[in-house]
Write a structure and sequence with these properties.
Layout (H helix, E strand, L loop, with lengths): L4 E5 L4 H12 L3 E6 L2 H15 L4 E5 L7 H13 L4 E4 L17 H24 L3 E6 L22 H22 L5 E7 L13 H9 L4 H4 L1 H8 L10 E3 L2 E2 L9 H15 L5
Parallel strand pairs: 1-2, 1-4, 2-3, 4-5, 5-6, 6-7
Antiparallel strand pairs: 7-8
Length: 279
């Protein structure tokens, strides 16, 4: 697989680090797109020691700062070429509303608008390369119970941590479905992943009792990485697009994630939000 390159966000901990490790063990070249390059360096050393795969690189990316995204994409393309697999894995869960430098709510920015912008910036190059490419958006089953109010995606009114997180993950499902439709005449497939409930740093900000219980009831990061690894590497899903997976099974979309009008509105809204950063 050394001729195939994986670009993965949020690989400095949890599910992303483990996904990078498992894919490195299978011989993929890995680009870790991270906001903390010192952390990335340590993770790359660990992965190289564990897998004996030296083909690991890092590139700076802060999904909470839009201006960082085009720089990351152009640096990646110039230094490492066009990726074969893009895994939008990075994500946050915040207890209170934090506003980004772009004036957006941070959960929505890191989990959705940032990956939207990043992917849209890669698309022209991916299309021009005319090669098989897989895009994987790490969402969550929480999306199936979430709601999206297109007029309040910055949560200036009625902020609630679970609502913001759920909305960001539902937005990723709509993005997966809409982008996959728009790319049907290409070799690019786009799918969403639910990793399961996984024992990672994402639980750190919960009150101690909840964090302890959640961690006990959770999968290990090794297990949590399975869906992303499957979607990245299995020949079974080389031509599958627009689906939502947990491990090797398709999770059916429900009524909330199948609202075509909302899907279209979100696409147009997202283009407006990031338009300053698109060519
Ligand atoms: N754990 C679960 O139970 C669960 C369930 C469903 C879905 N998920 C999803 O799985 C994905 C991975 O989460 P995890 O559980 O592995 O959590 P995690 O251990 O907290 O990892 C999150 C990763 O995202 C990165 N990140 C955070 N903010 C960023 C930013 N502004 N720019 C770039 N990268 C940023 C973090 O970087 P730093 O190391 O610099 O902080 C870290 O590498 C997320 O999308 C999450 O929503 C997790």
């Amino acid at each position: 697989m050394q001729d195939r390159t994986v670009f993965i966000t949020g690989a400095t901990s949890g599910i992303g680090r483990e996904t990078a490790r498992q894919l490195a063990a299978r011989g993929f070249r890995i680009i870790l797109a991270c906001r903390d390059l010192d952390k990335a360096e340590k993770v790359m050393q660990e992965i190289e020691e564990q897998t004996e795969n030296p083909h690991l690189q890092s590139v700076h990316l802060d999904l909470a700062v839009f201006r960082s995204v085009p720089v990351c994409v152009s640096t990646t393309l110039q230094a490492y070429g066009i990726p074969d697999i893009i895994i939008n894995n990075a994500g946050v869960f915040n207890n209170s509303r934090v506003e980004t430098v772009d004036g957006l709510e941070q959960t929505m920015s890191v989990n959705y608008y940032g990956p939207f912008l990043l992917t849209m910036l890669f698309i022209p190059e991916l299309k021009a390369a005319a090669k098989p490419v897989r895009i994987i958006n790490v969402s969550s089953k929480a999306a199936l119970y979430a709601a999206l109010d297109i007029d309040n995606l910055s949560f200036k009114r009625r902020y609630h941590s679970f609502k913001a997180y759920g909305a960001s993950k539902l937005a990723l499902l709509y993005f997966t479905r809409e982008l996959s439709k728009r790319l049907l005449d290409t070799q690019i497939v786009v799918n969403a992943a639910h990793p399961g409930r996984v024992n990672t740093n994402i639980w750190d900000i919960q009150p101690n009792l909840i964090a302890t219980v959640m961690r006990k009831l959770s999968l290990t990061p090794e297990e949590g990485a399975r869906t992303s690894v499957y979607l990245s590497s299995s020949p079974d899903v080389a031509e599958v697009t627009g689906k939502f997976f947990y491990q090797q099974q398709v999770i059916p979309y429900n009524a909330r994630s199948s609202d075509q009008q909302l899907q279209n509105d979100l696409w147009n809204h997202s283009l407006q939000v990031v338009k300053q950063w698109l060519p």
